[in-house]
Amino acid sequence: MSKIVKLKKGFDINLAGKAQKQIANTPPSDTFAIKPTDFVGMTRPKLLVAEGDSVKAGTPVLYDKMQENVMICSPVSGEVVEVKRGAKRKLLEIKILADKEIEYENFQTYNVSDIKSLSREEATAQMTKGGVWANIIQRPFGVIAKEEDTPKSIFISAFDTHPLAADLAFTLKGEEEAFKTGIEILKKFTEGPIHINHDLNGEVSSVFSGIEGVQHNKFSGPHPAGNVGVQIHHIDPIAKGDLIWTVSPYGVAQIGKLFSKGVYDASKVIALAGSEVTEPQYYKTLTGACINKMVEGNLKQDHVRYISGNVLTGEKIDADGYLGFYHNSVVVIPEGDFEEAFGWILPTTKKLSFHRAFGLLSFLNSSKKEYVVNTNTHGEKRAFVMTGAFEKVVPMDIYCDYLFKAVLSEDYENMEALGIYEVIEEDIALCEFIDVSKHDLQAMLREGLTLIQTS
């Protein structure tokens, strides 16, 4: 039975530079990169290729020794030109010089009737070998799901409320059949419901509306209403011992194409957005693409921060950096490496503030006003101040102040009691944004999740 959930807590960050719904023509990227750091919880990545090797789209490139069957595959065909490592030989990137025409590894194809008779074991084997299993994320902990587990339900958020987020329906236009096939495959992995969650105030796209045998729910409210973790909390909360899987709409479609076309298709439509982009719009590319040709000649200035993903949870990359595996946007905002004397007290209406500080005159700001923000934290780290503000931006029954303190003190019992199983970094990213103490709360939460997971 579908549900309607109306949320009041949260905070919309209305930024300038939203991507216009048009797909730009740009030359394809010359190089692509697979980054093991994209995969949370992958602690022991093992390489399957070396510099100079030739690969096809769908060729396994690496795997995690803790899940040896789950392959991470090349998005293109070409030559492995660099294996980049960091401190202590940590594997950072596998760079591939792409061919002009992509060649694909061939996997078995299935028609509609074949898919219905397909066993879970057969589906698992193709997904793990074909590179699409990494789209399935387990809650709690936000790591790649284990193939032997059975979740009590599967959640898919069909909308994104992050600032400057890509329109998911627009990025999946034309992928209706692939999405439907992906849902049929996912049904083999749970006896519980598959939840597809929509924006109550928006029109349900044809990509998602024709799906049967699933539960359609609707949510309204400010960010993080579009976060799948918030949706799980209000539909099917996670208790200790529970497992829920989440998949992005793009991941569902990619799973579907592996079975219907028999190829690992890494093509995606992403948004290039941000106040410093001259023409913010959408681009058709592939996972792991270099962003240099998208941003070249398309910026208002050079002193900027490139972010793969969104401004709250994304990853800082260079102008010749690479799109992350799970990301469907690249955001460019001004760099904030400067000091501002009395910045918090000087009267102004140009700055975005959740706390409505007197100097910012935030009470005069319109909710529809678009802001240009930079990466400046407007202050240094200081003692952990408990303001009670975190609970105003997290629409979940969690006392975030106390949860963070339990993590700092490595208090396992209180971490569990205070709801750590229900959250990952994106669910508390707004806490970090409004934190007057300037702490890295997302990194702090991940430390707590790792402690619980490995205990």
Structure description:
By secondary structure, the chain is an alpha/beta fold. The chain folds into 4 domains: 4-16 and 106-260, no CATH class; 31-98, OB fold (Dihydrolipoamide Acetyltransferase, E2P) (Beta Barrel); 270-334, Ubiquitin-like (UB roll) (Roll); 377-454, no CATH class. The protein is built from 13 helices and 20 strands. It has helices spanning 112-117, 120-129, 168-171, 176-186, 206-209, 228-235, 249-260, 292-295, 390-393, 400-408, 412-417, 429-434, 441-454, and strands spanning 4-6, 20-24, 31-34, 45-47, 54-55, 60-64, 67-73, 78-85, 91-98, 137-139, 143-144, 153-157, 194-199, 215-220, 244-246, 267-273, 281-286, 304-308, 315-317, 329-334. The strands form 4 sheets. The chain has a 7-stranded mixed beta sheet, with helices on one face. α10 crosses α13 (441-454). The longest helix has 14 residues, at 441-454. It is globular and about 65 Å long. The mean pLDDT is 93.
Largest sheet: 7 strands, mixed
Strand order of the largest sheet: 1-14-13-12-15-10-11
For the record, the count of structural domains works out to 4
- Measure the end-to-end span: 37 Å
Globally, the shape reads globular
Structural class, from secondary structure content?
alpha/beta
Low-confidence stretches: none
The total beta strand count reads: 20
Mean pLDDT: 93
As a percent range, the share of strand residues is: 15-25%
What is the percent of helical residues? 10-25%
**What's the tally of helices?**
13
Radius of gyration: 22 Å
